[in-house]
Write the structure tokens for this entry.
Amino acid sequence: MFEFLRKLTQPDPLASPLWPAIGRAMPLLHGLSDEEWARLETRMRHFLRHKYVEGTHELTLTESQRLVIAAQACLPIMNLEDKAYDAWSEVIVYPAAFVSPTQWTDEYGLVHEAGQPVIGMARSDGPLLLSLPDVEQGPWLDGRNVVIHECAHKLDMLNGRPNCFPPLHADMSRKAWNRAFERAYADFRNRLYQGLPVSIDPYGAQDPAEFFAVLSEYFFELPHLLHREYPAVYEQLRQFYRQDPGARLPVIGVQPCAQDELTPCHAG
Ligand SMILES: [Zn+2]
């Protein structure tokens, strides 16, 4: 069937009576203008029509759970193009933290083995894997959002292995991006090395790719905290995501993270 005819015959995934009440209840989406809300819904329709979003291990997703996943996944690309996520088509949701399914080979030929339980994984060979309890905690403004974290990895992978250097817009400076992230990453690791308190999840110190993904979580959930800690990084993320969460979300104070409090994740 022609693509446009197929779309015409598909029901609108946002015609659910549950939407937009679910979205309005998500703190993550507070403060969006009517125009931004409309753009988010456009991205969500595209996402839900083109992605296979299903549970595994006897988990059956509800309509509201799919909407919560789509809303979180589409917020980062609200002002980007639909094709930002076109390189992958599956979202597999586990009933809890999970171990990477058996052995798999990524697009670079590297073989990955099952390891520690994780709450999310952006596999370079395709699917996004998520733990449902963590997905459902995501919309709270606490700096932890596994959907945004894994989607940031997917954006980072658009030009190869995730490395904190996703494809930038034409009007962005590669030099300014590198300088902001390199200085912040060095400072963050240095603070942890010295045992100083930090306000950002120490998991970000794992490697530059995790730093980008973790800071993307803070950009969307605790933008004022990120701006206070690393204003140059905040400015780069504002340009990259083409939005300014600090202008729409409330200022929330947070305590420093415990250094042993790691968020399991794997940027597969
Ligand atoms: Zn990660």
Remarks:
- The longest strand covers residues 90-94.
- The chain has a mean pLDDT of 89.
- The beta strands are 52-55, 90-94, 104-105, 111-112, 120-122, 128-131.
- The pocket of zinc ion is lined by residues 149, 153, 210, 213, 265, 267 (CB under 6 Å).
